[in-house]
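Let's practice the habit of predicting before peeking. Look at the sequence and jot down your guess about where helices and strands might fall. Then scroll down.
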Amino acid sequence: MASPRLRRVLTEFPEVHLVHRCFALAPTPEAIAVIFGSKERGKAEILEHWRLANRYDDVPRFRPDLMAARPFDYPYSMPGLRACKAAESIGGQQAHWDLFDRIQYAHLVECRNIADDAVLADCAAAVGLDVSLWEKAYRSGEVLAAVQADLERARRLGVAAVPTLVADGTSALSGARTEEQYRAWLRAVIEQRARAGRDER
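Done guessing? Here is the structure:
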């Protein structure tokens, strides 16, 4: 929900530069079982969240019944995070965002296993990345270190939800919001910066 709304809203704020960071709700294959008691219970509960999210999505995209029928465990976070960070290392923030959106589509709409390297490579190809370069970056220690640095940054900032917007390391907005809520928050951040600049003079 957040990504398409933010894409639209940010066209109205050319002075705002959005930087994508990584945050892992389920950092390991075992994390969902730890959080929910079992992988099966975790998948079922997460898909109930999908059903609720469909009520608030601009164009309901989530397909929980299809995902429930898939034989694989609910995907964990790290492969997708590494995939997006690898895209960023090749094509900057725009490549990160484009691949993020394509992976999210593969997950929510196509209900593919986005913890599968082959699925992620398909997504990279779909957004026009050089897959050989992307695969090299995806498997690199540099990309893994960049993901881990983002996770540490999120921990220091107290981030606990996806999505979370952070400005200047202090002002944060968590959870999917309406376009008007995003606009209001951005205006408040810009005004706060302007006031701080005037105070410094």
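How did you do? The longest helix spans residues 78-108.
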